[in-house]
Each structure stands twice: as structure tokens, then as C-alpha cells.
Write a structure and sequence with these properties.
Length: about 250
């Protein structure tokens, strides 16, 4: 694994759609796992866009992804993958998120909650020790917690998905999450009441909604139109056939 003759690789694909079906670019990195780590990280940084906000004389830079989060996710995939499989580590990049998929699920006895709590059962102890002695990792089991700490306060959080033979961690694009948070409509108490009612009864009429909220007809009509404009509901039909869909 540490030699140039390492037979395992890392594959990175950049897609132009969120379903990861239309390729924009792709790369495969081979050689020593250290070489793979350096070259893969460098390529991911090329995909990591920087958005700048200027307020007066102050300029603030916002990266799509924290550099430390990218590093932690990549190192985690290299150290913990099951090298008994010949398949590559897969990294999928699109405008919304980055997925790191490595072969090998959790070792017996561990659960997903354990990973979040910092519990680590090493599959490749000697490899982890090599990374540790080269100061590429600080300790075992802190990488995932560090990733979540870097996303503290972000409207969208990283997602871990585990199967018996694979481990995937998805990092959301922070700049897109910020834009989503800015454009998210403010849901008032009455709007939330309407959403709660419709989630239980999709056939609720305008009159019934007004009665349950205790508001007059005109106010109910304006409230529903506002919710439609905000993208919270869709109004279908007219008159007695009018329906309000989530």
C-alpha cells in the first residue's frame, strides 16, 4: 500500500447534475496511498470554489467546502477502507455535495452512532500508525467528529450512509447551503398550522382551514396565496374543487 506498486486506486468524478449521471470530468489516482492522497486532495481543491463577500473595506472568503473537512473525509476513506476488495475509493462531486464512498462497512459490534461519538475500531492498524507517525492524523476516531464540528451552524449537515460492504459520507456544499438558508421563506405560526393540517388531511378546503385556524375568509385566502408564492404549497383546481397540496 505504501509503495508505487499499490494496486488500489482513488477515482474522482465531477458531474454537472445532482443525480450524478452526466460527467463533467473524471480522474483516477494510483501509486502509493500517500501519492493518491496528495493528488486527490489537490484535485478536490480545484473543484472547491471560493465565493467572496465585500463589505466596505473588508473582504470575506467562503469556500464551498472546508479544506479540513475534505482532508478528513479523504484520509478516513484511505485508512478505514477494506483493502481485501479490489475496487476503488469513489468520490462523486456535483454542485450540491461531495460523496466519499469506500469499500468495507463497519466492523462487527459497531453502530453508526458509535462513529459519531468518536469510537474507532481500526481495520488497518499498521496503515493508521504510518499515517500517525507522519503527522497526517492526530489520533484515531476524531476525524468524523471534526467534520461535524466544521459544519456547526450550517443549515445542511454531513450525512453518513453505511451498508455491510461500504461506507459513505456526504459533505454538503456550504455556499449553496448558505444561499438556501437565505432564500428559505419565513414560516409563520399560521403557515405552520396550515402545513400541519394538510399533512394529515390533503382534502382540507379553504373554509375548513379558516375554521380550524379561527380566521376570516379573506385572511385565509390571502394566507394561502402567500404560501403558494413562497413555494410552501401548490393550489390545484378552482371553486369547490380547489385543493391545497404540500
Amino acid at each position: 500500500l505504501l509503495s508505487d506498486q499499490c494496486t488500489h486506486t482513488v477515482k474522482v468524478a465531477v458531474f454537472s447534475d445532482e443525480e450524478n449521471t452526466i460527467f463533467r470530468d473524471r480522474k483516477e489516482f494510483a501509486g502509493s496511498v500517500f501519492k493518491q492522497m496528495e493528488e486527490t486532495y489537490g484535485y478536490l481543491q480545484l473543484c472547491n470554489q471560493n465565493r467572496s463577500v465585500i463589505d466596505g473595506l473588508t473582504r470575506t472568503d467562503y469556500w464551498d467546502y472546508s479544506k479540513d473537512a475534505l482532508r478528513e473525509a479523504l484520509v478516513n476513506a484511505l485508512i478505514h477502507r477494506d483493502y481485501g476488495f479490489s475496487g476503488s475509493i469513489i468520490i462523486n462531486v456535483n454542485d450540491k455535495e461531495i460523496e466519499f464512498v469506500s469499500l468495507g462497512g463497519l466492523l462487527p459490534g459497531l453502530m453508526q452512532e458509535d462513529i459519531r461519538n468518536g469510537i474507532s475500531q481500526l481495520r488497518n492498524r499498521y496503515l493508521a500508525e504510518a499515517f500517525h507517525r507522519l503527522n497526517l492524523i492526530e489520533a484515531y476516531g476524531t476525524g468524523i467528529r471534526r467534520i461535524y464540528a466544521l459544519y456547526a451552524g450550517c443549515v445542511v449537515q454531513p450525512v453518513i450512509s453505511i451498508t455491510p460492504n461500504s461506507f459513505k459520507i456526504t459533505l454538503p456544499n456550504m455556499n449553496q447551503a448558505r444561499a438556501l438558508n437565505v432564500s428559505t421563506p419565513k414560516v409563520t405560526t399560521q403557515m405552520q398550522q396550515v402545513l400541519d393540517i394538510l399533512s394529515q388531511d390533503e382534502t382540507a378546503t379553504e373554509a375548513k382551514l379558516g375554521e380550524m385556524l379561527g380566521v376570516k375568509r379573506t385572511r385565509m385566502y390571502n394566507l394561502l396565496k402567500q404560501m403558494e408564492l413562497e413555494g410552501l404549497i401548490r393550489i390545484s383546481g378552482r371553486g369547490a374543487n380547489k385543493r391545497f397540496l404540500l
